[in-house]
Structure formats: structure tokens, C-alpha cells
UniProtKB/TrEMBL annotation:
This is AB hydrolase-1 domain-containing protein. The lineage of its organism: Eukaryota, Viridiplantae, Streptophyta, Embryophyta, Tracheophyta. InterPro entries: AB_hydrolase_1 (IPR000073), AB_hydrolase_fold (IPR029058), Serine_prot/Carboxylest_S33 (IPR051601). GO terms for molecular function: phospholipase activity. Keywords: Hydrolase. It comes from the Eukaryota. The keyword Kinase does not apply. Belongs to the peptidase S33 family. GO terms for biological process: lipid biosynthetic process; response to cold. Pfam families: Abhydrolase_6. SUPFAM superfamilies: alpha/beta-Hydrolases.
Length: 381
């Protein structure tokens, strides 16, 4: 990648993907942006939906191009290190905001999306861009949780727990000066969202809607015979070398060990080519901290957040979504307990609600994205 101060690249979906080092310039543009962090110098935290230009080389010349009206204005360099988590910010076409703008201006409604164990923010990319097109006044913060993806190098300190992971996300939204209106967490990420509510009144808004996708607040119950179990998957991944020659070899090894083809193909999304950029990769290396992830999964099994649900704070609405073909069993007692909490919450000024996503296993955003979109859309109206 070029080392020029600012670099904007067009993504395959027509959005712009930015990587920044130092300076910035300006112009508003009614398009979606995705910004990846951490960066060496945070020129502005999160969006670049205002105040940005980019360069393109044509026949050996470097041409500056403004995003709108060919206007380019320079702004003060507000760089500062990003020390929390890697993230992407997907913004609707009508959003006119960045975290370095006037603090008195209200931030746009924001939804935070959290992945599960062995996942990454990329799991939510396509879904978030679809939401941004449907709800252009919203922005969507996609996070790499500690020990996962690009956050692996920034979160080396333990303990690696549900609570510490939730605190990471709270620190990030505070750093970005964002007040989330919606939290969406899949599996492990669902418990992280509940822990965020438990730990902080600020920077969470009131009202705030929490979506816990295919996870319960308490005991983790593994699926039945023949279903993939995260703990077994983590244990097997520990036996594999840190660098491998091909993704196909890993997929075959996982299938031979008894894991499903879908899970095997998903796991290898955590492999990154080795070697210098632009050269033919000599192999692949894992981008996660497996030791830390093992601690996180143990905490996921042990963490009990029923208190948050059964005594839900005023102004908080917790939505549970059960996948019809979930890999993880939902005990009847858990479902009954959630329904009981629904009645109590309505009397106390909060909210608890149960949903079922038809024709979906545990990977809800991959198995039935249309159904999930319809259910979640009610929160963005």
C-alpha cells in the first residue's frame, strides 16, 4: 500500500475504504464509508464522511480529487493514537458527522455490531451495508473484539472475559464520542452487549435496544450429537501450526476431525497471507490470539447475566432472538424465564422480548439474512 498521507480506495460495493496516517482535507459526500482501525495517528475517529479528499495517480501524475463539488479545504490535524479496538464505521448516505466535528452537534443514531467467538467485524459487513442503504440516517459500528482480527495486537492484557470485552467496546464508543442507540451481539457478542448495559449508564443512551442473537444470559448449553461445539473447535485449532501452506488443507483437516464444512470454511477466514504485499503468498498465518480466545469462551460459559434481564434498567429494551435450528440448545426453562422477564420489565419501564428466526441455525446472519433483516429493521424505524 502506498505511504501517502491519505489514501482512499473504492470498495467492490461502491463504498469507500480508508486507511489513514496523518493529514486530512475536506468535502462532504453522501456515500457510505468504512474505516478500519487502529491506525498510527488517528486523523479523526471513525467516519470520514465529511472533510476528506483523496489522491489518484494518472499517467504518472498525482491528482487530488474532492468528493463533492471539487472543493478542497484543509483542516487542523487532530491526530491521536487509537489504543482500543479495530473497527469499521459504515454510514448511511444522509449522515453528516465525524467525531472531530463540533461537540455540540448531536451524533447520528448509531448501532454497534459485535461478533461471536472466532469471528470478526467482517462477519457483519454485508449486513451493515444493507442496513445503511435502507436507513440512510444511521451509522453502524462494526468491531473486532479483543484477541480477534485486527484487534489482536492491541488487546494483549488479560483477563480475557465477557466483562473486559464489554469494557473495551465501552471505551471505544467513548473515544469516538458515539452514544449507541442499538447494540447487536451474536452468540458471545450477545453476552458482551448485556455486560455493556450492566457496566455503564454512559455512554449508553436511553432508550437503548439490545439484540442478543442466539445466546441466553446464563448457562451455555452445547448442541446435540453431531453439532459443532466451540470448545472442541478451539482445542483442535490449538493443535495446528501458526503458519500453514493452504486454506484447503485446513478445511480438509477440520472436516476429517468431524466439523461441518460450513464451520471449516468460516474458520479459514481467520487466515491472512504471509509475505510482503503484492507478492505471491508463501503461506497463511492465523490472525487471532487463540489462548486469549480460549479464556474468553470459558468466561462465556461461566458468565451469568440473568440479573440484567430480570431487573432490566429503565429505558433498556432487551430482545432475544432464537434460531429455529440453533446449534445451541435453548432449554425450556430459559425460554420460560425470558417470558417471565417480559412481564416484569413492562411494569418497570424497561422491555424484554423474545423472537424466533425461522429457517436458521446458529449463524443467523448467514443462514437467513433476509429474515434477520426484517426482524431487526423494526429497531431502526
Amino acid at each position: 500500500m502506498s505511504t501517502i498521507s491519505n489514501l482512499a480506495m473504492c470498495g467492490h460495493d461502491g463504498s469507500s475504504v480508508f486507511r489513514f496516517s496523518n493529514t486530512l482535507a475536506s468535502s462532504f459526500a453522501p456515500i457510505n464509508y468504512r474505516v478500519s482501525w487502529p491506525i498510527q495517528n488517528e486523523a479523526f475517529c471513525g467516519s470520514c464522511l465529511g472533510q476528506r479528499h483523496f489522491r489518484r495517480r494518472i499517467k504518472g501524475r498525482c491528482v487530488r480529487m474532492a468528493l463533492v463539488d471539487e472543493k478542497v479545504t484543509r483542516t487542523k490535524d487532530l491526530s491521536r493514537p487509537s489504543e482500543v479496538l479495530a473497527y469499521e464505521l459504515v454510514q448511511g448516505a444522509l449522515v453528516r458527522w465525524s467525531s472531530v466535528m463540533d461537540k455540540s452537534l448531536p451524533d447520528p443514531p448509531t448501532a454497534v455490531f459485535l461478533h461471536g467467538i472466532l469471528g470478526s467485524r467482517k462477519n457483519w459487513g454485508t449486513f451493515a451495508r444493507r442496513l445503511a442503504q435502507e436507513f440512510p440516517t444511521w451509522q453502524f459500528l462494526l468491531v473486532d473484539l479483543r484477541c480477534h482480527g485486527d484487534s489482536t495486537s492491541t488487546t494483549t492484557r488479560g483477563p480475557h472475559t465477557v466483562a473486559s470485552t464489554a469494557l473495551d467496546v465501552l471505551k471505544l464508543v467513548r473515544q469516538l464520542r458515539i452514544t449507541p442507540r442499538i447494540l447487536v451481539g451474536h452468540s458471545f457478542g450477545g453476552k458482551v452487549a448485556l455486560s455493556m448495559v450492566e457496566q455503564a449508564a454512559k455512554p449508553l443512551a436511553r432508550p437503548v435496544r439490545v439484540w442478543v442473537l442466539d445466546a441466553t444470559p446464563g448457562k451455555v448449553r452445547p448442541g446435540g450429537n453431531g453439532e459443532d461445539h466451540p470448545e472442541e473447535l478451539i482445542s483442535f485449532l490449538k493443535t495446528l501450526p501458526e503458519e500453514v501452506s493452504s486454506k484447503r488443507d485446513i478445511i480438509n483437516a477440520l472436516i476429517q476431525e468431524g466439523f461441518s464444512k460450513d464451520v471449516a470454511q468460516w474458520v479459514v477466514t481467520n487466515l491472512r497471507p504471509t509475505g510482503s504485499p503484492g507478492s505471491t503468498p508463501s503461506g497463511f498465518s492465523w490472525i487471532f490470539d487463540l489462548k486469549g480466545i480460549a479464556e474468553m469462551y470459558q468466561s462465556y460459559e461461566e458468565t451469568n447475566l440473568w440479573k440484567v434481564v430480570e431487573d432490566v434498567p429503565r429505558g433498556v429494551h432487551v430482545n432475544f432472538l432464537k434460531a429455529e435450528r440453533s446449534l445451541h440448545r435453548w432449554a425450556l426453562e430459559d425460554i420460560q424465564r425470558i417470558h417471565a422477564a417480559e412481564e416484569v420489565a413492562s411494569e418497570e419501564g424497561g422491555g424484554v422480548e423474545m423472537h424466533v428466526l425461522e429457517d436458521a441455525g446458529h449463524w443467523v446472519h448467514a443462514d437467513n439474512p433476509d429474515g434477520l433483516f426484517r426482524i431487526l429493521s423494526s429497531s431502526f424505524q
